From TrEMBL:
Transmembrane segments: 119-139, 159-180, 187-205, 211-231, 293-313, 334-358, 378-399, 411-429, 435-460, 472-493, 499-525
Subcellular localization, as worded in the UniProt entry: Cell membrane
Annotated membrane topology: Multi-pass membrane protein
Descriptive protein name: Peptidoglycan lipid II flippase
MF terms (GO), sorted A to Z: lipid-linked peptidoglycan transporter activity
Keywords, alphabetical: Cell membrane, Cell shape, Membrane, Peptidoglycan synthesis, Transmembrane, Transmembrane helix
Record organism: Deinococcus soli
Keyword Transmembrane helix: yes
Region (Disordered): 1-34
Amino acid sequence: MSKSPLGQPPAPPELNMTFEDAGPPDAPPPARPKKSLRANTLIVMLGTLGSRLSGILRQMALNNLFSVTLVEAFNTAVTIPNLLRELLAEGALVNSFIPVYKTLDAAERRRLAQAFSGVLIAVNLLLMAAGILAAPYLVDLLLAGQSNIDRELALFMTRMVMPFLMLISLSAIAMGLLNADEHFRESSFAPVAFNIASIAALVLLPKQAEWLAFGWLLGGVAQLVVQLPALNRFGLLPTPALMGHPAVRRVLRQMAPFTLTAGARQFLNVYVLRLLSDARLFDSGTQAGYFNAQALFTTVNGLFVVSPVLAVFPRFSQAAAEKKWAQFRALTASTIRTTTFLAAPMSALIIALSPYVISIINTHAPRTAEETVKFLAGAGILSSWSLALVPWALVTVLLRTFYARERTREAVTISAIGFVLEVALYRLLVPPLGLIGFGLSTTISGLLMTAALIVLYRRAVGFPTREVTGHLLRVVPLAAVSGGAAWLIARALPIQPGFILTSIPVLVLAGGAGLAVYLGGALALRMPEVAAVTRRLRR
């Protein structure tokens, strides 16, 4: 799978440390009143849902309003800033900034925000200039020697979209400041603003390369601007300044290894794209199906895995800063229970109904051989990826517990080994097994990474093995039964997949029945996660 969760933080103590001396040495700031964790999770999940759904609409608008030549050149162009955005902005920044920020008092937090935003702006200006100058080499790195993409058009658009890196980096600073103080509303819905502005630009601006690139930048501006009023309202709006602060080094030390690992993941993405373009292995249309599957899978993963973990991450950081390790372990167990409770049925239902799920992208049934390949490839890749949803939910949670304790070295090592293993598995499994090789490779690497992270976690602060194992032994079989029920109902319905309007009734009936089986079983087993949902519905 091309997008796998991951991350990392200054040289950690030895693994045989005691509970008392685990975590950062800095004195914690005065405790603040805590907001409802469930409310935070709901806000992040709703923001993620809005972002993913509007992102699918943006992708549909792009595909329907512009020529294939222009779309392919644009996809190539935005690859460069998208590679860099994860290296320097969203993931690396949020996961390294919040743990350090939470250890400071209010005055030092403001100084850190000023110093760090100034450093980030300077770095982005240098990278933007370098990216524009080196664009020919970057484009050649992405395109095959005999490419079916217009190189000159891709080069032109690459240079136009490079300022997006600055916009997304500033937006990530805003997101980190808001999330650290558990203000999730504006930061969670900022990507929705990006998609809405981009869609408006796609619809209203001329259908030319320069305007397509300008619309992308306009979306980046919108994503930053919508967060500024909240920063100002909560007194968090920094004034960027090129000044020193001792905590900046801590943040940068945390970012450096995470950036290296994120870079490895992006090289994995490039490898997968080149693999899919190999005519000896896959027919034309497979890569388009891959992007459709990716859009839908990231929607599910972002909503049911990443969002709950993002909402609880400040609590992890606070507990680690205060060295409350019993609370930290309890929070780890509850977060794993929540994410796997949500991820397991989604995994089973997508596997059972993947042809109907992928049909959401299709405004008409496949009419040509290429469209048929795209549809079948999308369904196959989506189904195989869904096998990895639960293992990577565990990885996502566990890695955040390492970031919160500023224990980057272990997380970096495990993540790097995981990516190397995943590439090796792709090379080993994809040629003989085809599309299912992608999901199997990611599932195997996710399971092995989970095992390694649990071992390191247990040595440092003690892992809640019994609670997590007991939960998974109930959730996974129950999800499998729900997926089987959904599959049987879909098979009984006289409706073929391939078109959004005919597929939605199947998803509602079969998916709803499968979900009802899952929730009914969870109620019978008296699982606290579903009990909490029913209590909220009764209010």
